[in-house]
Amino acid sequence: GADGIRGDVIKYFHRRIDSGTGVIYPVDLASGDEILLRTSPEEESPGHVEDPVVTKTKKISSMDMEALSEAVSCCRRCALSESRTNTVFGDGNPKARIVFVGEAPGRDEDLQGVPFVGRAGKLLDKMLAAVGFSREDVYIANLLKCRPPNNRDPLEEEVMECEAYLERQIELIDPIVICALGRVAAQNLLKTRASLKAMREGIHYYNDTRLIITYHPAALLRNPNWKRPAWEDLKLLRKMYDEETGEAAD
Ligand code: URA
After folding, report:
1. Which of 54, 89, 109, 133 maximizes the CB count within 10 A of its CB?
2. Side-by-side strand order, sheet with 139-142
3. Ligand 1 pocket member 115 (CB < 6 A)
4. Mean pLDDT across the stretch 31-42?
5. Which of 154, 162, 72, 146 shows the shortest CA–CA distance to 107?
6. Residue 233: CB within 6 Å of ligand 1?
7. Helix (H) / strand (E) containing 60
8. 98: CA distance to ligand 1 center in Å?
9. Ligand 1 mean position to 249 CA, how many Å?
10. Which among 103, 111, 135 is the best mutation to test ligand 1's pocket, defined by most ligand atoms within 8 Å of the CB?
């Protein structure tokens, strides 16, 4: 498993360092671990003897929000890092009880480094307002932190490389409920190929957190007929929030 691979990688670098060929190795592992191994301190300050090998190991799964945001901003795990203008980490309140998850940054998001700021984002703001939420009451993130060229669907490999960031964001926020925006976000969070129609209106789980699914706001811009059912989804979200926080419903 991942721990075995991690152990092997560490052993390998220990050997390199012991044999005097150690340098700085940032290592990305598919499991989402980032291991930074540094050369023996003697090489940097001769005579200095301390823990000679591992000076820093950091896993995405143990980062705080600041470290995570920093890691995303310099991420090179997939090719989207070459075409992006900005990474798009997340927006809203990191103490929010509701997390919305979209698909990936679009053009406006890539330019500004903030999720859901384009036309779809304006509609999302209106949808939130319709059930009494502002952006500061929720947290908004995407499956991918970088824009796919021409807004194409995320590739499996891109999701694989990126999902540890979102997973850690959600773990740190620990919301009452996640709302997946659209089919692509829902399928990837739930690891299923089911259709949006089959998944909507159900209560699902992401790790141990309840997850509901509604239409992506960009889809609502194309199909205004779906606005009514989307409104029902948001009312359910509001109800779950009120029940959990003890706030009186309006
Ligand atoms: N669509 C998304 O899925 N995410 C954004 O941030 C913007 C548009």
Report:
1. 109
2. 91-92, 139-142, 98-102, 177-181, 209-214, 204-206
3. yes
4. 46
5. 146
6. no
7. none
8. 17
9. 29
10. 103
Cα 103 to averaged position of ligand 1 atoms, centre (Å): 6
207 is written with which tokens?
Answer: 């790790």
Which ligand 1 atom sits closest to the C-alpha of 217? 1
Show the tokens assigned to 31.
Answer: 């499991």
Mutate to test the pocket of ligand 1, among 125, 142, 153, 216 (most ligand atoms within 8 A of CB): 142
Q: What is the pLDDT of residues 140-170, one digit of tens each?
A: 999 999 999 999 999 999 999 999 999 999 9
| Residue 59 β-bridge partners | 33
| Cα–Cα distance for residue pair 107/238, rounded to 1 Å | 30
The whole-model pTM stands at 0.79
Characterize 67-84 residue by residue with b for buried, 16 or more Cβ atoms within 10 angstroms of its Cβ, and e for exposed: ebbebbeebebbebeeeb
22 in ligand 1 pocket by Cβ < 6 Å?
A: no
Which of 98, 69, 86 lies closest to 238, judged by CA?
Answer: 98
pLDDT of residue 10: 65
215-250 pLDDT, tens per residue? 999 999 999 999 999 999 999 999 999 999 987 545
